[in-house]
Design brief:
By secondary structure, this protein is α/β, with parallel strands linked by helices. The chain is built from 16 helices and 11 strands. The strands form 2 sheets. Strands 3-2-1-4-5-6-9-10-11 form a 9-stranded mixed sheet, covered by helices on one side. It has a two-stranded antiparallel sheet with strand order 7-8.
Length: 465
């Protein structure tokens, strides 16, 4: 059965190029119907031409359509892949960081938790719910495969307010492989890019080095992790060839021998709680109360890096220019055969083939209690099996009690943020900001909320109805 797939956000040069390549190169998806949607007609047209070129040169046999109106494409869809952003990506992200700073709160990253994560959720959730409600009307049995952040909060909102089946996909668990490869590099003959300057912060110039180390780690190790998206913890590390348990040795090497400036907050939590985070310092610290104190200045103590907004804009422009060249036939398609998959193609293949395929990290409700200690409605990131019957989260060992509590607190905060974002209730919004680990003053949180609602007014209609 050839599937009907819709990609919403297909005009994104960074996400769209790889997403389309992994779908069109799959032998199991030949003959599929592919709908491409984006609100930017110009970038959508480029990606449409690129998809048609891949389709023709690779003999994929797809039927490809494009529209700026998702309702034109959704009828009969089996899978809807979503990667969107409400508001210009780097502009609003920077404001998510700068607005709280104006009122005295210096966040470490401002994307998934903290005040910035609150604003990010409030902008993106109404649009995600709109997509899901259109799916309820036009393709109610379809799967929504979400790549949009804040991943766990948006998934919770879709599950709470719609009947659509939603799973979140994220590659951040792979950063654990880069960490392990760096720590064990000498013993596994791994060439570390940038030498003693290597780190796993996801700024644009550093991405190739991270992926080089991820590949080295995947070649040599098997890592199992669980937790919440961007706040997951390695539960086992084994040698891929021998099956030997590497965790005790990895712990000793990281805590006692690794250079002290390598992901220092990750090391600190590893030493305190006994498990190593997977995401690296900058993503992981969004969920912690120990990352913003103006006296201790943890951003200096742990060298907590910010996102490079200007660097990301430059990267986006470069990738978009390359997409134009590829669409025009001015560059060969061969490199796209090897582009790293984000997991959507594999999910669809597993469902179609009923293969009971193992997936290392899916973001799904904890309905079966796969991650002990968290409520059944919480969105957890755990290994899972995918087949025609759906997604089956696999039980994992309980995290240490303190880590379970940190994850549970984030889940409860996410629930309040989602309710505020969905309803536009200002009282709930203030409560959500006050519950956040970055909160340290009622008036400060009230001022941040007022500033968000004013600065982002055009993207927060639910609060101004």
């Amino acid at each position: 059965m050839a599937p009907h797939i819709v990609v919403i956000g297909a005009g994104s040069a960074i996400f769209g190029t790889g997403a389309l390549a992994t779908l069109l190169r799959s032998p199991l998806l030949r003959g599929a119907t592919l709908g491409l949607c984006d609100v930017n007609a110009a970038t959508l047209e480029t990606m449409h031409r690129l998809a048609e070129r891949m389709n023709a040169e690779w003999g994929a046999g797809f039927s490809v359509r494009a529209s700026t109106q998702r309702r034109d494409l959704l009828p009969g869809a089996d899978f809807v892949i979503v990667c969107i952003q409400v508001g210009p990506r780097e502009v609003v992200w920077r404001q998510d960081w700068e607005i709280p700073l104006r009122h005295g709160v210096r966040q470490p990253y401002a994307e998934n938790s903290g005040p910035g994560g609150f604003a990010h959720t409030c902008r993106n959730l109404p649009e995600m719910l709109g997509i899901a409600r259109d799916m309820e009307a036009l393709c109610p049995q379809a799967w929504l495969l979400n790549f949009t952040n804040p991943l766990s909060r948006l998934g919770l909102g879709i599950n709470r307010y719609t009947s659509i089946r939603c799973v979140g996909l994220c590659h951040q668990y792979l950063w654990g492989y880069a960490l392990a490869a760096a720590v064990l590099a000498d013993e596994y003959a791994i060439d570390v890019p940038n030498g003693s300057a290597f780190h796993v912060h996801t700024d644009a110039p550093n991405v190739p080095a991270i992926y080089q180390m991820i590949d080295a780690g995947l070649d040599r190790f098997v890592i199992r992790s669980a937790g919440i998206n961007h706040f997951a913890w390695m539960q086992s590390i084994t040698d891929k060839r021998t099956g030997d348990d590497l965790y005790p040795h990895f712990r000793a090497r990281y805590l006692q021998q690794m250079r002290r400036d390598f992901e220092p907050m990750t090391r600190e939590l590893f030493a305190i709680f006994g498990l190593c985070p997977t995401a690296g310092d900058t993503h992981m610290v969004e969920y912690l109360a120990w990352s913003h104190d103006p006296i201790a200045k943890p951003w200096e103590k742990y060298d907590l890096k910010l996102q490079s907004w200007t660097g990301n804009i430059a990267r986006r422009q470069a990738v978009r220019a390359r997409a134009e060249r590829l669409a025009a036939g001015d560059e060969p398609l061969a490199p796209l055969r090897a582009v790293r998959s984000e997991g959507a193609a594999e999910f669809i293949e597993a469902w179609l083939g009923d293969t009971h395929a193992w997936q290392p990290a899916l973001n799904v409700p904890n309905a079966g209690g796969a991650l002990p200690g968290l409520p059944p409605w919480a969105i957890v990131e755990v290994p899972a099996v995918v087949d025609r019957a759906g997604v089956h989260a696999l039980p994992v060992p309980a995290l240490p009690h303190a880590l379970t509590e940190l994850c549970r607190r984030e889940a409860e905060l996410a629930a309040l943020v989602v309710e505020a974002a969905a309803t536009g209730d200002r009282e709930l919004a203030l409560q959500a900001l006050l519950m956040d680990p970055m909160a340290n003053d009622i008036d400060r949180c009230r001022a941040i909320l007022d500033d968000f609602l004013t600065s982002f007014r055009e993207w927060l209609p639910q609060f101004h109805a």
